[in-house]
Amino acid sequence: MGPTIKLSSGHEMPQVGFGLWKVDNATCADTVYNAIKAGYRLFDGACDYGNEKECGEGVARAIKDGLVTREELFITSKLWPVFEDGDKVEPACRRSLADWGLEYFDLYLIHFPGALKYVDPAVRYPPGWHYDGKSEIVKSSTPMHVTWASMETLVPKGLAKSIGVSNFQAQLLYDMLRYAKIPPAALQIEHHPYLVQKELLALCKAEGIAVTAYSSFGPASFLEFGFKHAEALVPLMKDDLITSLAGKYGKQPSQILLRWATQRGLAVIPKTSRVEVMSQNLDCTGFDLEQVDLDSITDKDAGIRFNQPSNYFSTDKMWIFG
Ligand code: NAD
């Protein structure tokens, strides 16, 4: 096992894991199996990714073939906003567990803050953002402290070893820390050289919240959505600074980007379906960047965020998510 991060729950989380967003259903089981074979132990899933059954199939096959045991794996899933009403949290977690074929998650996260009106899984699953499945955004009146209290019940019930949040900003975390009986063990956020999030990282460090970076390659993950601000930027893998550091350290640009994040103390969860790239991405902690190089990457910060709900839809209601 590679390096791990000790969570406030007492459990260890691998520092390098595998992301499951946009891994298509047809290839997902094989991708997960191959990633386990390549050495990945952490898998970052979510109800919203619509592939939890297939992910579970890959895990089950790897366990059956003796590649790994359940205890050696660290599996994360996420609660979608339509399940943030207090009485919907546990059933949503149980549905994700059933899809994966697991008895517990190592980490269960609130995917986004901001509860939405409940959508019965019998109507549509995964439910997505829209109440009508097309364009309607309907808020629920549930505040975060109610959702979090329900998240906390998952731990003694043995459904989640650790609980945490994703896409939360500082003020909401500060608020949570005032009522949480179990503080969030982890925060998962968009993090790349165009979005460095210095202050949020400092807050998490001070409060003992582990941080996982997603979309470590920045705009690369968002080109397929036609985001103009992603297309307008130099791809990070082709950026002059990143490619020159790749030359200096004899590594791939992707490994420089992942090492910058891991040396800042973050966990990373890159995703790829190419087996040779899986190994390359996993191999991103065995060398060190000099401080001056870490700083020069950090200096690229432009405060550019891609994964915010308002970027995906032309609806005037999406401001509720920032
Ligand atoms: P990523 O940054 O891991 O990958 C972006 C693109 O780069 C992908 O198309 C991938 O195929 C490609 N790529 C991967 N490794 C490469 C390499 N070595 N060389 C060249 N290209 C490479 O993108 P991501 O999927 O946005 O983020 C990773 C994971 O983070 C997701 O799969 C998901 O699990 C998680 N995530 C979470 C949230 C959230 O809201 N919590 C949002 C986005 C992503």
Walk me through this protein's architecture.
By secondary structure, this protein is an alpha/beta fold. The chain has a single domain, classed as TIM Barrel (Alpha-Beta Barrel), CATH 3.20.20. Helix content is 35%, strand content 13%. It contains twelve helices and ten strands. It has helices at residues 25-38, 52-64, 89-100, 144-153, 170-179, 198-207, 228-231, 240-249, 253-263, 275-282, 291-298, 309-312, and strands spanning 4-6, 12-14, 18-19, 42-44, 74-79, 105-110, 160-166, 186-190, 210-214, 267-268. The chain has an eight-stranded parallel beta sheet with strand order 3-4-5-6-7-8-9-10, with helices on one face. A two-stranded antiparallel ribbon has the order 1-2. α1 (25-38) links the parallel β3 (18-19) and β4. α1 (25-38) packs parallel to α2, α1 (25-38) packs across α10 and α8 crosses α9. The radius of gyration is 19 Å and the shape is globular. The two termini are 37 Å apart. Mean pLDDT is 95; it is low at 318-322. Bound molecules: nicotinamide-adenine-dinucleotide (NAD).
Notable features of this structure?
13% strand; 10 strands; alpha/beta; 322 residues; two-stranded antiparallel sheet; globular; eight-stranded parallel sheet; single chain; disordered C terminus; TIM Barrel; binds nicotinamide-adenine-dinucleotide
Percent in helix: 25-40%
Order of the strands making up the biggest sheet: 3-4-5-6-7-8-9-10
Q: Could you give the distance between the termini?
A: 37 Å
Compounds present? nicotinamide-adenine-dinucleotide
Percent of residues in beta strands? 5-15%
Average pLDDT confidence is 95
Shape: globular
Total beta-strand segments: 10
Instruction: Give the helices and strands as they follow along the chain.
Output: EEEHEHEHEHEHEHEHHHEHHH
Q: Provide the number of structural domains.
A: 1
Give the count of helical stretches.
12
